[in-house]
C-alpha cells in the first residue's frame, strides 16, 4: 500500500520466509475506495471477492493458464492490445469469484514486454490501469534501496528478536532518508545524499 502524499510504504509486516504473502494480505482491511495493486503472488480469487464486496478496487496480473470466457470487448489504443470483460470458467475459480472481471492485455513500448492485468475497475481507461500497476514498482525500488544503502549482509544475532531489530533498524533510517530526499530543495540522488550524510554525520556545522 503506497501513500501518494509521501510515496512511502504505509506499513511493513515481517514474517518468516515460509509464510505466504497472501496470508498476510487476508488479515488486512482497506478503506472503501482503495486501489489495491498486487503482483501474481497475491492472486487469490476468494480474497479478490472480499475486496470487491468491501468497495475496494484491485489491479493484479493474470496467470497465463487462467481459464476464462470473453463476454465483451472494447476499443483499444496505444499500448493496450485488448480490453475485455471476462468470466472465469474453471470450477474452483468460478466458485470463488463469480462476477465479471476486466482483462487488459498491454504492451510496454519501453521494454517490449507484454502484461495481462485483471481488475474490477470499469471507470478508468485501460492505459490508466496499466500505469497504476507500473507504480507498484516503487515498492520494489524501496526494498532494493534498503539492500543497497543499509547493507544487511549478515545478522549480528540469530534469534528472531535480534533479526527483527536489525531489519527495523535499517528500515527506519531508510524511511527518514526517503522523507528528507522528498523535502530537500536540492534534488538529490538517494545514493549521493546517503554518501553526503555519512561523510558529515559527525561534522560540527556553524
UniProtKB/TrEMBL annotation:
Q: Keywords, A to Z?
A: DNA recombination, DNA-binding, Transposition
Domain Transposase IS4-like positions:
3-172
Spell out the Pfam families in the cross-references. Answer: DDE_Tnp_1
Has UniProt tagged this entry with the keyword Transcription?
no
Q: Which family does it belong to?
A: Belongs to the transposase 11 family.
Recorded protein name is Transposase IS4-like domain-containing protein
Biological source species = Ravibacter arvi
Amino acid at each position: 500500500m503506497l501513500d501518494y502524499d509521501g510515496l512511502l510504504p504505509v506499513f511493513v509486516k515481517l514474517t518468516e520466509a515460509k509464510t505466504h504473502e497472501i496470508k498476510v494480505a487476508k488479515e488486512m482491511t482497506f478503506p472503501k475506495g482503495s486501489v489495491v495493486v498486487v503482483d501474481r503472488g497475491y492472486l487469490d480469487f476468494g480474497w479478490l471477492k472480499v475486496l470487491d464486496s468491501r468497495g475496494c478496487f484491485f489491479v493484479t496480473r493474470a496467470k497465463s493458464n487462467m481459464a476464462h470466457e470473453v463476454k465483451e470487448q472494447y476499443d483499444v489504443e496505444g499500448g493496450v492490445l485488448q480490453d475485455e470483460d471476462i468470466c472465469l470458467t474453471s470450477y474452483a475459480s468460478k466458485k470463488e469469484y463469480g462476477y465479471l472481471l476486466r482483462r487488459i492485455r498491454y504492451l510496454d513500448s519501453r521494454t517490449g514486454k507484454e502484461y495481462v492485468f485483471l481488475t474490477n475497475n470499469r471507470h478508468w481507461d485501460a492505459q490508466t490501469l496499466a500505469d497504476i500497476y507500473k507504480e507498484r514498482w516503487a515498492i520494489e525500488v524501496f526494498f532494493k534501496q534498503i539492500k543497497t544503502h543499509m547493507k544487511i549482509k549478515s545478522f549480528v544475532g540469530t534469534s528472531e528478536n535480534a533479526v527483527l531489530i536489525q531489519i527495523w533498524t535499517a528500515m527506519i533510517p531508510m524511511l527518514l532518508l526517503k522523507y528528507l530526499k522528498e523535502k530537500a530543495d536540492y534534488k538529490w540522488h538517494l545514493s549521493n545524499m546517503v554518501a553526503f550524510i555519512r561523510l558529515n554525520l559527525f561534522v560540527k556545522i556553524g
